[in-house]
């Protein structure tokens, strides 16, 4: 079954005959067109049509095999109107703006139906080409981390570490997947402490979370690194997080329930008296978006399947003291899992 077939089946399940796709990552997933923010897709029982404008005529032809209609609104809507007249047409409730919905209401004689997660459902399982893109992105991130690791010393600014990571990713042909997190000493208490002017000090733990975006696909990895000798308290926190992370990674296999993986890691931190400081979910899917399904969070009913790519990233954040997060990128395989991130972890 192609992904278009899967999407059309999901549309039937949602009781819509057509779907107007406006989420850029979903536009890319269906068409391969890499400027998804400047494109829309209409999916009907007959197939998909990519709508974009004349700035992208050549690019769309090169990147996509989906039939294309080059126009700007209102002509875009007028063309699509003829294909969906009288139908039940789904729109992406989590992505279409109010103005976008008004435009559809103005131009189409249809019943508009809010839908959620139809294309995202198809994106959960990655094709071999998608897995290769994530694998390549992570391999580049591993190489760049190894190059930058010697720079992690007392006296260096967080911003300069981030710049070196960003430069390495760019030189390697990738984009920077998201704002690079370099959180040292007490700043480590911020799970998303993007790099600041703080100068790293002797005895700091430094949390580094960064990723590449290659051929549209992300990598995601966090390492917490010791500069000098951290306090006994932070070494204890580090080892508890490492134990939780390794146990959760080991439990990744087809059929594993995402909510139970989260509970496993949270339970280990609980035993160490640290669960209340684990301020986020255990992990998430990674692909065209840095955060996508499945969700490895408390209570999640998502079930892992071969071809999913997920992160495992427990963390402990002690306000005014510091923090630790350790994150691996993991592919769910037929018989278990494969860890895609190969950067060594500190043993403290
Ligand atoms: C702004 S992109 C940050 C990427 C980072 N590696 C990351 O995923 N951090 C997690 C702590 C996170 O944001 N988790 C989300 C899914 C959550 O718990 O809501």
TrEMBL record:
Residues 133-334 form the Peptidase M24 domain. Residues 4-125 form the Creatinase N-terminal domain. SUPFAM superfamilies: Creatinase/aminopeptidase, Creatinase/prolidase N-terminal domain. Keywords: Aminopeptidase, Hydrolase, Metal-binding, Protease. Pfam families: Creatinase_N, Peptidase_M24. PROSITE patterns: PROLINE_PEPTIDASE (PS00491). The keyword Protease applies. Transmembrane segments: none annotated. The keyword Calcium does not apply. One of its GO terms (molecular function) is aminopeptidase activity. This is Aminopeptidase YpdF. The gene is ypdF.
């Amino acid at each position: 079954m192609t992904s278009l077939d899967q999407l059309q089946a999901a549309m039937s399940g949602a009781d819509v005959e057509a779907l107007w796709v406006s989420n850029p990552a979903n536009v890319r997933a269906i068409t391969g067109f890499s400027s998804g923010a400047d494109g829309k897709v209409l999916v009907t029982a007959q197939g998909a049509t990519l709508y974009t404008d004349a700035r992208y005529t050549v690019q769309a032809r090169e990147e996509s095999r989906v039939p294309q209609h080059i126009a700007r609104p209102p002509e875009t809507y007028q063309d699509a109107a003829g294909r969906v007249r009288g139908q039940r047409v789904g729109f992406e409730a989590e992505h279409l703006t109010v103005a976008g919905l008004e435009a559809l209401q103005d131009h189409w004689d249809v019943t508009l139906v809010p839908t959620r997660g139809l294309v995202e459902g198809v994106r959960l399982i990655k094709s071999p080409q998608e897995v290769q893109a994530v694998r390549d992105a992570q391999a580049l991130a591993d190489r760049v981390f190894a190059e930058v690791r010697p720079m992690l010393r007392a006296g260096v600014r967080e911003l300069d570490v981030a710049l070196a990571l960003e430069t390495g990713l760019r030189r390697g042909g990738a984009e920077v997947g998201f704002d690079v997190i370099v959180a040292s000493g007490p700043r480590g208490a911020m799970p998303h402490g993007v790099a600041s002017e703080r100068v790293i000090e002797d005895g700091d733990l430094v949390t580094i979370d960064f990723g590449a975006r290659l051929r549209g696909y992300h990598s995601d990895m966090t390492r917490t690194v010791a500069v000098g000798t951290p306090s006994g308290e932070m070494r204890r926190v580090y080892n508890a997080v490492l134990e939780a992370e390794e146990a959760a990674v080991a439990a990744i296999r087809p059929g594993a329930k995402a909510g139970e993986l989260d509970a496993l890691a949270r339970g280990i931190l609980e035993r160490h008296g640290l669960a209340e400081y684990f301020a986020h979910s255990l992990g998430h899917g990674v692909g065209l978006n840095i955060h996508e399904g499945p969700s490895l969070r408390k209570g999640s009913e998502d079930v892992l399947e071969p071809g999913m790519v997920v992160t495992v990233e427990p963390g402990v954040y002690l306000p005014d003291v510091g923090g630790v997060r350790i994150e691996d990128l993991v592919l769910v395989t037929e018989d278990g899992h494969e860890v895609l991130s190969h950067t060594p972890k500190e043993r403290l």
